[in-house]
Amino acid sequence: MPESTIIPVLHYSDVRGAVAWLCNAFGFIERLRIGDHRAQLYVAPGTGGVVVAHGPTQSAGAGGPTHSVMIRIADVDDHCARAEAAGGRIVSPPGTYPYG
Length: 100
Prior knowledge:
The protein starts with 5 loop residues before the first strand and ends in a 15-residue tail after the last helix. The protein has helices spanning about 15-25, 75-85; strands at about 5-10, 30-35, 40, 50-55, 65-70. It has a 5-stranded mixed beta sheet, covered by helices on one side. It is built from 2 helices and 5 strands, in the order E-H-E-E-E-E-H.
C-alpha cells in the first residue's frame, strides 16, 4: 500500500484502462497490480498514492459510490465502535485478509 495515512480509492469498471490513462495523463507510476481488479499507483516513487479498484461507475448523483478512502489507524475495532456509537452506519465491518 502507498505509505500515506489517507489513501483515496478510485473506482473504475476497467482498471487496466484507468491505470494507463491516469499514468499517462497525470504521471502516476504503477507500483503494484492485483489481477484485473486493483492497482496501486504512486504520485512519485516513495510518495503518497492512490488505489484504483474495480467498482461502480455510476455518477455520484445516481446514489452509488464512485470513490472511497482508506485511512491507516492504530486500532480499527475501536475506530469502528466509536463511529457506530456516534451514529455512523457500518457498511462493512472490520475484517482480516491475507494481505492485512
